[in-house]
Amino acid sequence: MSRVLKSARLAGAIAAAAGLVLCAGVALAQPQGKIKVGLMLPYTGTFAALGTAITNGFKLAVDENGGKIGGREIEYFTVDDESDPAKAPDNANKLVKRDQVDVLVGTVHSGVALAMSKVARDNNTLLIIPNAGADEITGPLCAANVFRVSFTNSQPGLAMGQVMAEQKKKTAVTITWKYAAGEESTGGFKEAFEKGGGKVVKELTLPFPQVEFQPLLTEIASLKPDAVYVFFAGGGAVKFVKDYAAAGLKDKIPLLGPGFLTDGTLEAQGDAAQGLLTTLHYADALDNPKNNAFRTAFKAKAGRDADVYAVQGYDSAQLLGIGLEAVKGNLDSEAALHKAMREARIDSPRGPISFSKSQEVVQNIYLRKASGGLNKVAGIAVENLADPGTGCKL
Ligand code: PHB
Q: 35, 273, 305, 343: least surrounded by Cβ within 10 Å?
């Protein structure tokens, strides 16, 4: 064999070897296989409809992206968390340890989410919260691997307290289930209302998820405040709004709340909800191209109208998509993944959203009025509200 031929073969062999190395490099950079998404949400109990709407919203965004996120197909693992905080550590561990999910998505109930966020922190599993607003999660308990696309519980309450004080209401009574979400929501209302010159004269509670409202309604009738601010959602919200009207209070004392009071519930509440004023980061009738397209697509997929929970599920998948696109589907590029998610600008059906340093969504809070089956926008209560993330060290 001539020397020229030999060296040509050698060069070929080196090139082939280099090619293999290159291929191996590419294989490492672009992981194969499906991304395992663990959906831990309520599918039974008073928040069942909320969990289902979040799931359908998440899956809609994935479907619109050809069934993939960050170029990878999705495998879903699902747990019904029953909105039961006592079962939450076991449920989250099933997804993280048994199913080895890459990302946890959940949940609705603040008490359950607090337990989930601990499991996520302990195992360094990416967690996207599509609803539960427990203030601490993006406060002292914040973590680089924990993101929230929904709200902090005090936000809509603060906005409504401000609006009521501006309307020169003097006294209010608050009512809620006694747990983190309700207490933080009514706490936000009280803070802003009293700062504006009002006074919360009584704070009434009942255990979650009880719905025996009659004694509370009797007390309101005798206290005769200028307004009543309540935190209830899902099945509990349907019953409270109907009971309030049936007790003859609706036309006497304005009933107010965060928009959860009338979101996804208007059909079941019927006339009892007409005209109710609420504050929230979404309104059915927001007229922007993204919301209009989203509502049509959601209805076609889920067979029912979209609500705030559907939006939050949809945006959870959008956020994950932005992160995974940035790292070409490679979840191991953790720092880059978190950075891309933190810096995400999302075209949400609620309007444009971004994230604060504590990885909490920054968004408008709308004042809405329930009218003819829709929550219509009555104004922007607070623009681009960012949670202060007090106590977060990120
Ligand atoms: C919560 O527990 O954080 C929670 C539950 C239902 C809602 C909103 C917040 O609609």
A: 343
CB-based pocket (< 6 A), ligand 1: 108-110, 131-134, 153, 181, 233, 260
Ligand 1 center to 294 CA (angstroms): 22
Contact between 77 and 39 (Cβ < 8 Å) = yes
pLDDT for residue 24 is more than 50: no
Q: What is the predicted pLDDT for the residue at 32?
A: 72
Task: State the pLDDT at residue 70.
Answer: 87
Cis peptide before 209 (omega within 30 of 0): yes
Reduced to 3 states (helix: H, G, I; strand: E, B; else coil), residue 373 is: coil
Residue 233 CA: nearest ligand 1 atom is: 10
pTM tops 0.90: yes
Which has the higher per-residue pLDDT, 49 or 12? 49
| Euclidean distance between the first and the last CA atom of the chain, given in angstroms as a whole number | 66
The Cα–Cα gap between 17 and 26 comes to 14
CB 345 within 8 A of CB 354: yes
